[in-house]
Amino acid sequence: MLKNEKGITMAMLIVTVVVMVIIATIAVSTGNNLVKKSELADRVSQMQLIQAKAEEIYNEHLYSNTKLLGEEVLIDSDNNSATPAEKWYKLSKEDLEKMGIDFKPTDELYYCVKYDLTQEKSKDGVDKSETEEIDVYYSGGYKSTNKNTYYTLNKLKDLES
Description:
- The chain is an alpha+beta fold.
- It has one domain.
- The protein has four helices and five strands.
- The chain has helices at about 10-65, 95-100, 120, 155-160, and strands spanning about 70-75, 85-90, 110-115, 135-145, 150.
- A hairpin with a 5-residue loop joins strand 4 (about 135-145) and strand 5.
- Helix 1 packs across helix 4.
- The chain starts with 9 loop residues before the first helix and ends with a helix.
- About 20% of the residues are buried.
């Protein structure tokens, strides 16, 4: 009597469930990767905007002798205790508003800019090729899929490529 009844067998049911679990796992993994890529692109985009505005401010500083935006601070941008701290300029809420950026910094989350002081240094005999471009630091960092945390725009650009 059981041989004449139509329906799915236990084996077919198990195979179906296993296939659905595999598909769900792939979908969740892909979704997480897309969210991380989107988060990285958003962070890089915002930091590039700050970098562009900082370049304008720096050029204005060079040619009109205006004040650079930000409060001078020392930061180890690599977060490596063996690396000496570098001179950065921490941007306040007012500084970011002057740049046209809508971000409310806190004590824990803030942006800093390392201006390119090439032309000022060149007066002292430093070769212009030895200096770096303007860089941006975000205190919150970006935790990549390899579990490392990156804080500067230059490092994040390397991750994108």
